[in-house]
Design a protein that fits this description.
By secondary structure, this protein is an alpha+beta fold. The protein folds into 8 domains: 101 residues, Sandwich (Jelly Rolls), CATH 2.60.120; 84 residues, Immunoglobulin-like; 96 residues, Immunoglobulins (Immunoglobulin-like); 243 residues, Rossmann fold (3-Layer(aba) Sandwich); 164 residues; 121 residues, chitin-binding protein cbp21 (Coagulation Factor XIII, Chain A, domain 1); 136 residues, no CATH class; 64 residues, no CATH class. It is built from 14 helices and 66 strands. It has a 17-stranded mixed sheet that branches. It has a 9-stranded mixed sheet with strand order 29-28-27-26-30-31-32-33-36, with helices on both faces. Strands 1, 2, 4, 5 and 7 form a 5-stranded antiparallel sheet that branches. The longest helix is centred in the middle third of the chain and has 17 residues.
Length: 1052
């Protein structure tokens, strides 16, 4: 302590125990205990242990910051090593006139060490159905309560394990049934357990007997129809109908038949259909019995009501936009059907009053022009029931009021709902322009439609609409089903664009009016059949149409398969993501025609989910393979009937949002808001709410969006585009403002001898596609503007390697029919997809004596001779009033008729170099219009024609799986003057005793040949060294020798 004899002195003392014999102590069992009194001042104290004269092991250190501890008993585990025999403890104290450290009652003793008990794991005997996956949690116990870790001892022989230990998912190999097993063990940090055995029995998929009724409720005038499946297949299995409360085996059946449809039971049937005669009103139950007995294999209940089936069809005519004439045409179709006492077609109509020319053509008068009108459709007419001020049909409350009024005013036994207007998949439905006084704004979402419809159905104590349909584009998506399955039993929609005239109202509604008791499944098939025939006129429809009727009573089974799929796909490994990117890029795309908001041609964000799942079921492995096959089966179970074009035959018929780079828009949220400023009319849009019920865990959408986030991350990490090189001369990397002189004429393009250009992908295993376009900057005064005059070709690539393409000097040219002279007006545009003879391009149309310009999309078909026909005209959904913001609603068939004297301007895609990057634009030229002749559309001609002679540049660009674009390759091509046949291309002149043969220098690489007759004589080649280049011509001079010679120029 500090009580020494010096005024100021350092104090350094130590306390050392004698050698302590520890030979009898177990490893780690010794404990040191002593009493300590420490008074804080600047000083230092340590406690150390030494085993068998070994190195110091410090147990305790105190200093001036250590607090007072005047009456403390300290204990320390000494951690004595195994085999140690001697221990010495040393306390050391250093201070300077400081307080003390007092130590007493030192004791070293051994604690009793309880031996560790190894953990114990469970053996399990589990079962699962063939074709499904099983969640397994590894489990064990430990006597000391230690935390356990787990490890696999062996893998299953007939399946795969995924997930994170101890929570695993066992997925049997496709097609396997029988027993499988794997072993595991647990560890408590010290000891391993004995191995535990997980035994799994995969039960073969044996279909269970099921009865599926055509509907749950029948009229007393209707036959009862059903389908059965999964029966044992005895010839005497039978179906019987009983009134509710009667007992099979005790009471007789009201009607019955064997499963082969006879009263004899001649043929065995495990599945099939059956039809029974109409029954009196009441509650009934139909049974499937086994082998002439009363063993119940399956059953279903149904109701029969009295009277004739009454229908009310509510049509929400949301037509206040650029498609007003389309709705007027559909109203005429409805008037071919009309209403009667048992069948009512009730319409709420809102037209665009600014579309005066279309309104005049259809003879529309007030109040229909500028107000919202409710009417009952009659044959060749309609009865006005209510006239209201101009309504905002994008407001869900307006839809709710219409449904409420319709159900209240026209009660019926069965109901249908038609939602008519633009559609845009998850972007919504609608687009009300308020008689041309309002621009774009976010559309109504199906979540809004679900809410107001459910509220109104509940108010009227109606379960669901029998059917509901969007007579629009793109609404056949997974995102829409989650809302629509709650409000209807049958849902009808198009996953693809509707290139033509929507529903065939005359054929479809007449069939329902004539047979009001028609089963819903039969009605679905009839509607699709009528729609298919209605869309069999234009080539765009014949190739690309997709229209589907979905059975919403099968939604739960489908949804379970979708949840399993999205939960599994978000667990994909990096290697699997490469497979997914490849299959995504090669998927069937919907929304085949981009609007101007998308600019140039590119992959759509919507794909066919079913065919994508089918491809995954073939190429993926493990659990992802299984759930992909189950999803395909789930979607196919939804589809009652489908109409598909020749290029969409492999589509299953349900879309999903799957952007190629994973980036979703602001509207793709479960519940969120976004703020918008003014539209082009100065009308403030303000804050808008966006909801996608699909994006919840219960529907699998939350998992899907998580997966899209992974796709976005993969895309962000893959920013290396393909590296390409041009083959041979006449090309360079990058863009140029003009063709260098030495490059001109290297490639010569003629109709007979197309220019052949080559390129090589030298770095880009995922190079997917190449696009070649005719590009010019000669049409503007700005040398930084590059205008795409049209695509000359596109094709898919197979990664790295050499490729070639050709151009014959022709492009689609717009001109007047039967005109021999014209200034070429390039059509522009792109093929709908590689290999398609359908092209789409942009154009603006202005009717005579009208200031308004209508943005259009032209779809043109070309035959094998290059002759084109405008197959379809679409109203571009990115109309001028939308400011190019992209409202997400699809273009639709236009009702515009080209009038004599109107003007049509092709609109071209353009890129402008801003110094940092190329910025895309769409441009047209005032002097680049064509005047519509007296014969209207038929007076226009589009055909592949040779462009004017001169020098051109062709740009080639490749893209990879994530749409990363390579550097542009520029090819320099000369198109010569049209010279007729070869005799006129060679000019022969006589100069004394010599002849001179000349031809243009752009025929570089051609061979001059001669023969002494036109038949039977040998062909001779003129040596190249005898041919001279004189300016822009090649010249060959030969002496006269008195014999005749015939010359020709050929390409080797």
């Amino acid at each position: 302590d500090e009580f020494d004899d010096l005024d100021d002195a350092n104090f350094d003392a130590s306390l050392k125990t004698p050698i302590i014999d520890i030979r009898g102590a177990s490893a780690g069992s010794l404990v040191l205990s002593f009493d300590s009194s420490w008074r804080q001042e600047p000083q230092r104290g340590t406690l150390s242990a030494y085993y068998d004269d070994g190195s110091e092991l410090e147990l305790l250190s105190l200093d001036g910051d250590s607090p007072d501890a005047l009456n403390a008993t300290l204990s320390f585990p000494l951690n004595n090593p195994a085999g140690a025999s001697e221990l010495v403890l040393v306390w050391d104290y250093q201070g300077s006139n400081n307080w003390w450290w007092a130590i007493d009652n030192i004791r070293v003793y051994a604690e009793v060490v309880i031996p560790n008990t190894a953990p114990v794991v469970e053996n399990k005997d589990l079962q699962l159905d063939q074709g499904t996956a099983l969640s397994i949690t590894l489990q064990g116990t430990d006597a000391e309560g230690d935390t356990l870790s787990y490890a696999l001892v062996s893998q299953p022989e007939h399946g795969n394990l995924s997930g994170d230990i101890p929570n695993l998912i066992y997925t049997p190999r496709v097609g396997f049934s029988g027993r499988d097993e794997f072993a595991y063990k647990a560890n408590d940090g010290i000891s391993d357990s004995e191995s535990g055995l997980i035994q799994i029995e995969v039960i073969a998929d044996v279909p269970r007997p099921v009865i599926q009724l055509s509907q749950m409720e029948y009229k007393s005038s209707q036959q009862m129809q059903l389908e059965f499946s999964g029966g044992p297949g005895n010839p005497k299995d039978w179906l019987g109908i009983y009134a509710q409360g009667l007992q099979p085996g005790q009471d007789p059946a009201l009607d019955w038949q064997y499963t082969d449809g006879t009263k004899q039971g001649l043929t065995a049937a495990t599945s099939g259909s059956a039809t029974f005669a109409a029954l009196a009103p009441g509650d009934y139950k139909v049974y499937l019995f086994a082998n002439n007995g009363y063993e119940v294999l399956a059953s279903a209940t149904f109701k029969v009501t009295s009277g004739t089936t009454r229908w009310t069809i509510l049509v929400y005519g949301h037509a206040d936009s650029n498609i007003t004439p389309n709705f007027l045409s559909d109203l005429e179709e409805m008037q071919k059907v009309g209403s009667n006492d048992q069948f009512n077609i009730i319409v709420q109509t809102d037209l665009d009053g600014s579309r005066t020319s279309a309104l005049d053509v259809y003879g529309v008068e007030e109040p229909f022009r500028t107000q919202t009108v409710r009417s009952r459709i009659l044959r060749s007419d309609q009865t006005i029931l209510e006239v209201m001020p101009e309504m905002d049909m994008d407001d869900p409350n307006v839809l709710r009021d219409f449904i409420d009024w319709g159900l209240r005013s026209f009660p019926a036994d069965r109901y249908g709902l038609v939602l008519w207007d633009h559609g845009g998949q998850y972007n919504g439905y609608g687009g009300d322009h308020q008689n041309g006084t309002r621009g774009w704004r976010p559309a109504m979402k199906t979540a809004d439609i679900r809410d107001v419809t459910l509220e109104t159905l509940n108010k009227h104590q109606i379960g669901k609409f029998d059917f509901a349909t969007f007579d629009t584009c793109l609404m056949g998506g997974a995102e829409q089903l989650v809302d629509m399955h709650e409000i209807c039993d049958l849902y009808i929609a198009c996953p693809e664009l509707d290139f033509a005239a929507g529903w065939d109202y005359a054929g479809t509604l007449n069939a329902l009016k004539d047979f009001p008791g028609m089963p819903l499944l039969e009605f679905a098939e009839k509607e699709v059949t009528f729609w298919d025939l209605h869309h069999n006129r234009k080539l765009s429809d014949k190739n690309y149409k997709v229209h589907v009727a979905y059975d919403m009573t099968k939604f739960d089974a489908y949804n379970a398969s979708l949840k399993a799929f999205t939960s599994q796909i978000k667990e994909a490994s990096p290697e699997t993501h490469q497979l997914l990117a490849r299959l995504r890029r090669g998927a069937i795309h919907y929304s085949s025609v981009n609007d101007r908001g998308d600019g140039e041609k590119g992959p759509s964000q919507f794909i066919d989910l079913g065919s994508f799942a089918q491809a995954l079921s073939r190429e993926a492995t493990g659990a992802l393979q299984v759930v992909s096959a189950q999803l395909l089966e789930g979607i196919q179970g939804l589809v009652i009937s489908k109409a598909a074009g020749s290029r969409r035959l492999d589509a299953v018929g349900l879309s999903i949002n799957y952007p190629i780079d994973g980036r979703t828009g602001y509207a793709y949220v479960f519940d969120g808001t976004a703020f918008f400023g003014e539209d082009d009319f100065g009308v403030n849009i303000g804050e808008r709410r966006f909801r996608q019920n699909f994006l919840q865990l219960s529907y699998g959408g939350a998992q899907w969006k998580e997966f899209l986030g992974q796709v976005q991350s993969a895309s962000s990490n893959d920013k290396s585009p393909p590296l390409i090189l041009a083959g041979g001369a006449g090309a360079k990397s990058g863009r140029v403002d003009q063709a260098p002189a030495e490059a001109q004429g290297v490639h010569v393009a003629t109709w007979e001898e197309p220019a052949l250009m080559t390129f090589e992908v030298i770095d880009g295993e995922d190079a997917y596609a190449a696009h070649a376009s005719l590009v010019s900057n000669a049409f503007t005064d700005n040398p930084n503007e590059y205008i795409y005059l049209g695509e000359i070709g596109s094709a898919e690539l197979d990664g790295e390697g050499a490729y070639d393409f050709s151009w014959d000097g022709s492009m689609p040219i717009l001109s007047l029919a039967d005109s021999d002279t014209y200034d070429p007006i390039y059509l522009g545009g792109w093929a709908l997809e590689a290999g398609s003879n359908l092209y789409y391009s942009f154009a603006d149309y202005q009717a005579p004596n009208e200031e308004k310009v209508h943005p259009l999309i032209l779809i043109t078909s070309f035959d094998e001779n290059g002759n084109g026909t405008i197959d379809q005209i679409l109203d571009d959904s990115i109309a001028t009033e939308s400011s190019g913001t992209g409202q997400g609603l699809a273009p639709v068939a236009s009702g515009i008729q080209f009038e004599a004297g109107g003007l049509l301007w092709p609109v071209y895609y353009m890129e402008e170099w801003t110094g940092d990057a190329y910025e895309p634009w769409l441009v047209s030229f005032e002097d680049g219009s064509i005047t519509i002749p007296d014969t209207g559309l038929s007076g226009l001609e589009i055909s592949y024609q040779t462009v004017e002679s001169g020098d051109y540049t062709i740009e080639l660009e490749t893209v990879d799986l994530f749409d990363n674009a390579s550097e542009v390759l520029t090819y320099f091509v000369s198109v010569p003057e049209e010279l007729g046949d070869s005799a006129f291309r060679l000019s022969i002149t006589l100069d004394g005793q010599q002849i001179s043969i000349t031809w243009p220098s752009y025929y570089s690489g051609y061979q001059l040949q001669w023969a002494e007759s036109l038949s039977g004589s040998s062909i001779n080649e003129v040596p190249m060294e005898e041919i001279q280049l004189d300016g822009e011509h090649f010249v060959y001079v030969s002496d006269l020798d008195g014999r005749q010679r015939f010359y020709r120029l050929v390409k080797p």
